[in-house]
User: Fold this.
Amino acid sequence: MDKHCNPLQIAESLSETWSPKVISQLDNHYIKVAKLQGSFVWHEHADQDELFFILKGSLLMEYEDKKVELQAGDLHVVPKGTMHNPIAAEECLVMLIEDRGTAHTGDTVSSASRSIEEQLGSFVSKNR
Assistant:
């Protein structure tokens, strides 16, 4: 497995929004990048925390009882079992660290949901 990459460059190369791509693995966690724009979908991950690191742009993380504004360079952890909805008013590039078993939209199924196979994409073929 290639242990060196530039998450920002990879995120900038993505064409599809809200479709994370796995770029590396750390123990039992995937490191992903994504291009975000607009509102996503309310969801939760019952058993896993989710880490967002803002590479470029800004992100508003909505919770049922508050909103957290994030800027480039900010790191934010969404606690497991917490309903949340990420919103990017303009294009935002993020790096995510998630347990390998984390479903993209938790138990919420929508047209925005991406399987882990879709998220792995070229990472699998490059690292076999």
In short: The chain has two helices and seven strands. Strands lie at 21-26, 29-39, 50-56, 58-63, 67-71, 75-78, 84-99. The CA atoms of residues 61 and 73 lie 15 Å apart.
